[in-house]
């Protein structure tokens, strides 16, 4: 952990961006628990739960083809401020969702909120390689994922109690207020990076991106590798688990919060332990470990307390998979294309997460057990391990360090 502390001490811009990230992500999970609690209280069908989970990712897919070009042609701070402002209003207006007839409003606001969040994330991840390089970039990516996980842990756990004691509307308002704090912290930050506004049109920039992919197929393979992490989009699965197995023994909001928080404990400690051990060849093993962890979760699913334990193990490998595959992509592409390629990378990741969310709801509706669905997700990581081993043998992939 000292290496992350030293990095923050030596990089003031990264330190402020990390503080903003911590506040914004922490707030986001208040509304996440509140949204699913609201849906379960309205007794919606599994399809509605899955569709809402899909919307969390679908917005990022739709905007990705042009968001990267915008990032490469607009100053990052200005763009990030606009996106946080959108998140503030989209979150605050969730208080007007009260009954089934308001689902259209819920869908619209979730779509806008997550579109802005995805756009902000892509902007920040394309900014980091301009601020840092080499091992510092890898550690910054790991730190980013640790902060996300820490926010996820605290946000899910605390928001479960907030929703239980104070209700979903208070959670939405608290979420919006945290985004306000993040907005003012970013407003006062000076981001000093070289910015050269492209003279190409957005259409030409998009064409140039595809020409780059054709010349550098390894970039496509690395994006596909990162997209496997989208299989861990468990929001719909957890909501259905709570409804089916745990609602009779614990309040819905508490069960949701504790399950997500336990997985996030693993997300936090994973990169701290595995960060200095991981390399290209060992990444194959991490994919396999992730598969076995998910299979363990499927086996223990019916027992709430054992499921909490298994959730920690599932989270342990996920953050390392996410941060290392992301850093590999950043390390193996040209600086000129950071914004565009990061955007397309996020599009593939979000597509994977969207399909996962949809299939969870679809298979559950068709009568497949939640345990069987979880086993299928674990098998996806076995496929990922085989695929990455092939990529290493056929492509010239640089090591991160």
Notes on the structure:
The chain is mainly alpha-helical and 401 residues long. 81% of the residues lie in helices and 0% in strands. It has helices at residues 2-10, 12-41, 46-71, 76-92, 103-131, 134-166, 168-187, 202-215, 217-227, 235-246, 252-274, 280-300, 304-331, 338-365, 370-394. Helix 3 (46-71) crosses helix 8 (202-215), helix 9 packs antiparallel against helix 13 and helix 10 packs across helix 11 (252-274).
The biggest sheet amounts to:
none
Task: Please identify the structural class as seen in this structure.
Answer: mainly alpha
β-sheet strand percentage: under 5%
Instruction: From the alpha carbons, calculate the radius of gyration and give it in angstroms.
Output: 20 Å
Count of strand segments = 0
Give the terminus-to-terminus CA distance. Answer: 18 Å
Summed up, the helix count is 15
Order of helices and strands: HHHHHHHHHHHHHHH
The coarse silhouette is globular
Give the mean pLDDT: 86
**How much helix is in the residues?**
over 70%
Summarize this structure briefly.
Keywords: Cell membrane, Membrane, Transmembrane, Transmembrane helix, Transport. The protein has helices spanning 2-10, 12-41, 46-71, 76-92, 103-131, 134-166, 168-187, 202-215, 217-227, 235-246, 252-274, 280-300, 304-331, 338-365, 370-394.
């Amino acid at each position: 952990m000292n290496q992350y502390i030293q990095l923050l001490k030596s990089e003031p811009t990264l330190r402020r961006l990390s503080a903003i990230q911590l506040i914004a992500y922490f707030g986001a999970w208040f509304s996440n628990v509140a949204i699913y609690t609201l849906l379960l209280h309205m007794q919606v069908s599994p399809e509605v739960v899955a569709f809402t989970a899909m919307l969390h990712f679908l917005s990022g897919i739709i905007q990705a083809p042009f968001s990267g070009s915008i990032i490469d042609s607009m100053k990052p701070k200005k763009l990030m401020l606009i996106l946080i402002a959108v998140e503030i209003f989209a979150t605050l207006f969730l208080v007007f969702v009260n009954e089934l007839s308001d689902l259209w409003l819920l869908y619209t606001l979730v779509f806008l909120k997550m579109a802005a969040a995805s756009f902000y994330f892509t902007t920040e991840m394309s900014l980091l390689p301009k601020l840092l390089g080499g091992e510092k970039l890898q550690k910054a990516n790991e730190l980013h994922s640790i902060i996300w996980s820490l926010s996820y842990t605290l946000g899910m756990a605390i928001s479960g109690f907030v929703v239980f004691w104070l209700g979903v509307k208070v959670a939405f308002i608290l979420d919006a207020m945290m985004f306000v704090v993040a907005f003012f912290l970013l407003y006062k930050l000076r981001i000093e990076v070289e910015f050269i506004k492209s003279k190409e049109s957005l259409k030409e920039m998009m064409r140039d991106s595809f020409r780059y992919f054709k010349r550098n197929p390894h970039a496509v393979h690395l994006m596909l590798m990162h997209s496997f992490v989208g299989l861990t989009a468990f929001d719909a699965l957890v909501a259905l688990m709570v409804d089916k197995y745990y609602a009779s023994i614990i309040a819905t909001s508490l069960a949701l919060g504790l399950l997500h928080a336990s997985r996030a404990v693993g997300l936090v400690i994973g990169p701290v332990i595995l960060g200095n051990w991981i390399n290209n060849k060992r990444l194959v093993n991490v994919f396999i470990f992730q598969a076995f962890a998910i299979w363990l979760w499927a086996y223990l699913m019916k027992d709430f307390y054992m499921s909490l334990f298994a959730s920690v193990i599932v989270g342990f490998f996920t953050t390392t998979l996410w941060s290392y595959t992301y850093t590999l992509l950043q390390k193996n592409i040209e600086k000129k294309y950071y914004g565009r390629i990061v955007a397309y990378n996020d599009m593939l990741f979000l597509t994977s997460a969207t399909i996962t969310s949809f299939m969870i709801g679809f298979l559950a509706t068709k009568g497949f057990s939640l345990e069987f669905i979880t086993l299928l997700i674990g098998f996806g990581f076995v496929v990922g391990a085989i695929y990455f081993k092939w990529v290493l043998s056929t492509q010239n992939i640089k090591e991160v360090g």
